[in-house]
Structure formats: C-alpha cells, structure tokens
Write a structure and sequence with these properties.
With about 250 residues, the chain is mainly α. It has 13 helices and two strands, in the order H-H-E-H-H-H-H-E-H-H-H-H-H-H-H.
C-alpha cells in the first residue's frame, strides 16, 4: 500500500508498521521464519522507513529495462480500458500515474518531478516513463544512502534461475528452494482475468504512443541522469557506510 496523501506521513508509517506486524502474527507455522511482501512500485519510497523499522528485513529490487517495462504497462492499460470503459476513463487512469510519483525520501534534487505544470501536461505513456525513472532513481538514492538492496534483472532471473535463486538465498539467508519459485512462474496467476498472459500478448500499443514512449524515455532518462543500464547505474553508487570504510 502507499500513502495517497490522505493521512500524515507519521500516521501512515504507524499504519504500515502495524500492518507488517499483523501479517507476521497470523503465520502459525513453526517452521516459518520469514514473510515476503510484494509491494507495488508506488511503495518504493517506503523502503527507507521499512529498513529502519525492521532492521533484519531485506529488500530485493526486481526490474526490467525501460522499454520492456513501459510497453508491458501500456498493454495492461489497453487491456484494462477494454474491460473498464463503463466505470472509468483515461483521465482517471492518468491520475493514478501522475499522483504519488515514487521519489526518494527526502526528495532532494528530484523535486522538479513533482511540478504540477509538468504533471498536468503528461500523457499516459509519458507518465509511465516518469514513474519508471522515478523508481530507479529512488532505488539508486537509497543505495547511496547506505541501504542494502539486492537488484536483479527479471531476464536474468528467468534465464539463469539456479544462479539467481542462489543469489537471493545468500542475500536473504533463506534456503535455496529453486523448484518452488519456478513452479509459480510457470503458472499464469491472472488466468481468466484481463491481466492474463494470453490477453496481454494480444494488446496492441498505438504507433503514436510508441513514438511518445521513445521521446519521453530520452527526455526523462537524461533528466534523472540514468543514461546507462539499470545494473550499471545501481552498481555505480556506493552507500555512505562503504565510503566511510574506504
């Protein structure tokens, strides 16, 4: 969950801490020593709070490159529009993308991305590009602040599952149960819904939107200073503790 500016940040943090504790308290399996929380990307700014509130927690950032990610979300929007035209419109969908941009806390040099004039003029594909750049910039800022985050390309996870799950096991301290995650991956968790793999594969992105994605990607990657691959960008920063040790 993420704060939609409905309550103060302090009360939101109290609610978030309580929610995590409640999730943990409902686990009755004596052999269970960990829980996994998969938040939406809008929750990325809360990583710094969660890492302080739960010092033994581990954060994993699973990403795709900007083109793959934005194309995927655009196909979701196309598919969703076909199903939702009776109760929502493009303006409401756009509002989701232009509200609560996932920037680091404190916002610092990225405050320009919250400019109302900028957000008011955003297109749907452009706003998705902005959210992708903001999320990567947020992770990069937190790594620089000293928060330990394992970052992994989704392609690497799929193409090299054995090595990838070993990295995850080493980072989290969990047993390497490679077969179980692969079983889950091979299933379509959204089967029968508008997000099913079959439906999304058929969703087509308009040529004009493809052009906007390319233009906005060039603009925002430069604005956020994300000119290299995600892996290179995140490997280029060192945390505060690392620099002190050096």
């Amino acid at each position: 969950m993420y704060n939609r500016k409905e309550i103060t940040q302090e009360r939101y943090h109290t609610l978030l801490r309580a929610a995590v504790k409640i999730l943990a308290s409902f686990q009755n399996d004596e052999n269970l020593h960990s829980i996994v929380i998969k938040p939406v990307f809008k929750c990325t700014p809360q990583i710094n709070f969660l890492s302080k509130a739960f010092p033994n927690s581990r954060t994993i950032f699973l990403y795709r490159n900007i083109k793959e990610n934005v194309d995927s979300f655009m196909r979701v929007m196309v598919s969703f529009t076909r199903q939702s035209f009776l109760f929502t419109g493009e303006s409401e969908m756009l509002e989701y993308w232009t509200n609560d941009i996932p920037l680091p806390d404190p916002v610092g040099k990225y405050r320009w991305a919250l400019n109302p004039s900028l957000l008011k003029e955003m297109s749907l594909p452009g706003s998705i590009v902005l959210n992708w750049c903001s999320t990567v910039a947020c992770i990069k800022a937190y790594i620089e602040q000293g928060i330990e985050i394992l970052h992994m390309d989704y392609k690497v996870l799929v193409n090299s599952p054995k090595e990838s799950w070993q990295r995850i096991a080493d980072f989290t301290g969990l047993p390497n149960l490679e077969e179980k995650p692969l079983e889950a991956y091979n299933k379509d968790s959204q089967a029968g819904a508008f997000l099913s793999r079959g439906i999304l594969a058929k969703a087509k992105i308009k040529k004009k939107d493809q052009a906007i994605i390319e233009q906005e990607s060039i603009k925002f990657l430069a604005a956020f200073d994300l000119q290299r691959t995600v892996e290179e960008e995140l490997n280029s920063v060192k945390g505060v503790l690392d620099r002190e040790n050096d």
